Amino acid sequence: MQQKVPHNQYDLTFKRLFQFKEVFINFLRSNINREWVNRIDAESLEFVDRSFIKDEFVEKEADVIYRARLEDTDIYFYVLIEPQSTADKSMPRRLFEYMSLVWKRHMEEKADELLPPIVPIVLYNGRSSWSIPTQIFKGFDIFKDDMFNYILVDVNRLDDERLKSRLDLLSIILYLEKSRRNAEEFIEKLREVSEYVCKLPQSQLKVFCSWLLRIVKPRVRDEMKSRIDELLEKIEAEGVEDVGEFIFNVQQLIQEYYKEAEEKGKEKGYEEGIQEGIQKGIQRKEEEIVRRLIQKGFDDNFIAEATGVEIERIKKIREEYTKYS
């Protein structure tokens, strides 16, 4: 779609002016009272094509996007030229929409990188004073330290004693989650919390038992999976009658699985040990042949071609042979 010229010549003029890097950097230094502005690498300023902004915005918006480098970080400046006579209450929402489009493009081009900072700027020349908040989000003064950060709750770092002291439904599950890869520890913890599980309301009890069965299901024999599915359906429909018996049966299933896994692991380890022994024997034989050829005066390239042994390995064998002969 062909872009339409903005109806107001004022904003078009500013768009043309801002295409000169020296004009734009002077604009930033004169109007943005931030310490980091003077640290921007002026040579890194780059006028960004805005064709990725939605077509429906093209007719009514006039904007300029610049990318610059600040130490080891890319930073975007989004300048929205606002020629209307009165302040537009939708401005914060509009700015966020455009910022989202810039971030979307960044994610498409550099999927593995964190999102770059965007500094939104509104250039306004209306007759009335600007009365719209410059904050894009409500309650910014309260949540400013949490905006555009995420709060990490790492289950593995949660304190067991604190979880046990609460023992609500979530705390019980998180307490068990920490040990789900260790059968003995998991079963022991399950015994510890079983008394509290029994006291949960039936609605929460159904959630807990369903979670527990889904933990167990991938670890049981295939013929047991359909039985677990039946139990899940029954729990969802009818709830759990005897919680103690249910937990005991789950413990038995976990123990059975890990016992089988341990036996298979021993068998696999024995087989891998045999294969490793065979491989080492082959390597010793190859090294013996290489040493004999070295003794007879053949060069490394000939030995590599004759034996199939890698040239670097031959050089290492020759080095050891020369050192100790």
TrEMBL record:
<dbReference type="GO" id="GO:1990238">
    <property type="term" value="F:double-stranded DNA endonuclease activity"/>
</dbReference>
<comment type="similarity">
    <text>Belongs to the Rpn/YhgA-like nuclease family.</text>
</comment>
<dbReference type="GO" id="GO:0006310">
    <property type="term" value="P:DNA recombination"/>
</dbReference>
<dbReference type="Pfam" id="PF04754">
    <property type="entry name" value="Transposase_31"/>
</dbReference>
<dbReference type="InterPro" id="IPR010106">
    <property type="entry name" value="RpnA"/>
</dbReference>
<dbReference type="InterPro" id="IPR051699">
    <property type="entry name" value="Rpn/YhgA-like_nuclease"/>
</dbReference>
<feature type="domain" description="Transposase (putative) YhgA-like">
    <location>
        <begin position="9"/>
        <end position="195"/>
    </location>
</feature>
<protein>
    <submittedName>
        <fullName>Rpn family recombination-promoting nuclease/putative transposase</fullName>
    </submittedName>
</protein>
<dbReference type="InterPro" id="IPR006842">
    <property type="entry name" value="Transposase_31"/>
</dbReference>
